[in-house]
Amino acid sequence: xxxxxxxxxxxxxxxxxxxxxxxxxINEAVRDAMASIIQKIVAVKGAAHESLTKSAxxxxxxxxxxxxxxxxxxxxxxxxxVAPWLATLDAAKEIVRGTVAAEPVADEPxxxxxKSKKAxxxxxxxxxxxxxxxxxxxxxxxxxxxxxxxxxxxxxxNERALLVPLPEKFYLLDExxxxxxxxxxxxxxxxxxCTPVMPNLDLLASTxxxxxxxxxxxxxxxxxxxxxxxxxxxTYQHFAANGEMLGRPDAEVVERIxxxxxxxxxxxxxxxxxDTLMDLALYGLAEMFTKGRSRLFKVKxx
Length: 302
Prior knowledge:
- There is one protein chain.
- The chain is α+β, with helices and mostly antiparallel strands.
- 35% of the residues lie in helices and 9% in strands.
- The radius of gyration is 25 Å and the shape is globular.
- The chain starts with 27 loop residues before the first helix and ends with a strand.
């Protein structure tokens, strides 16, 4: 999606208020402007380019900022800032997919009658080839970098991770460190999390759950995200009971977790579920496996 800036300049002037700042709202002016830009990218890069094949939620916030600025929307590279525009972007992608699927097929040349072909003797039938069964891709252990927690520099200036006990080791993503302000509390390769607190190992030992059921003194964040700790609490409860979870669970699982946490189903609350699982893997309380862009988490030792 970062190729957008090379294709088009801003085509419209809009603000976040035009969409009502609702995650499911679609701003038609922005949608059409986005579709125009994506159409130009596809014309250059082809229909298999990620600007068309990915869903809006699969793009990192910093990737979406360039596109939003190209259509006159001022946004920050955070999940909260870009969330109101995800539905509009998905609608723009659908428009472009429709035009790609509807490209006309060339007509047969007119004016000349088709030449008759001479009948050929039938060929001897060949024995059918045995079809090889395709092996379905399997989840593989995620690439991580194990470091001693005591020797690791926390990327967040406020060092909120120190409000709870640190593990002996961190299992960091084996990826380049991110730059800018919106970096994870512990893992420099991850974007800022929707979970406000890291797993509390002392709380796990005393209660069987590393997250408090309600915000306590270890949860330091804005009022909007304080209750997100309840999502982490019930995500762990479901995870421990079932032994494994997908990073993006089925709708039924999401509904159950958010229902117990008394939280609304939004882009950010869903993201908090996966962020919780990734933090558990970061602290060695879970093992993470990957298959393409999908993630699977298993309770350590299962």
